[in-house]
Amino acid sequence: MDIEELVQRLVLLGAGFTAKTLEMQIFSGTLSLPLFLRCLVILRSPSLDFCIDYKDLVSAARSLKAS
C-alpha cells in the first residue's frame, strides 16, 4: 500500500485531518498515538499483537468512526 492509499483510508476512518495534513504527519513522523494505531489497523500490522488484540483495535477504530 502506498502513502496516498493509506491517507485516503485514514480519511475514510474519520481521522479528523485533511489528506494533506495526514500525509505531512506521516512523512514527518509526528503522528499521534490514535492516528498511529489507525495506521496499524489499516495496514494489518502484527506489530502490537503481543500487547493489543487486533480485534480490539478494529473495534476501537469502528467506534471512533461511528461517534
What does this structure look like?
Helix 1 (3-12) packs across helix 2. The protein is globular and about 30 Å long. It contains four helices and no strands. The protein is an all-alpha fold and 67 residues long. The protein has one domain (3-66). The protein has helices spanning 3-12, 19-28, 33-43, 54-66.
Q: How much is the radius of gyration in Å?
A: 11 Å
Helix content: 55-70%
Large-scale geometry: globular
- The H-and-E topology, N to C, reads as HHHH
Strand proportion: under 5%
Task: Look at the structure and give the mean pLDDT.
Answer: 85
What is the CA-CA span between the terminal residues?
A: 27 Å
Q: How many alpha or pi helices?
A: 4
Structural class: mainly alpha
> What's the story with the biggest beta sheet?
none
Number of domains: 1
Q: What low-confidence regions span 5 or more consecutive residues with pLDDT below 50?
A: none
Quick one: how many beta strands? Answer: 0
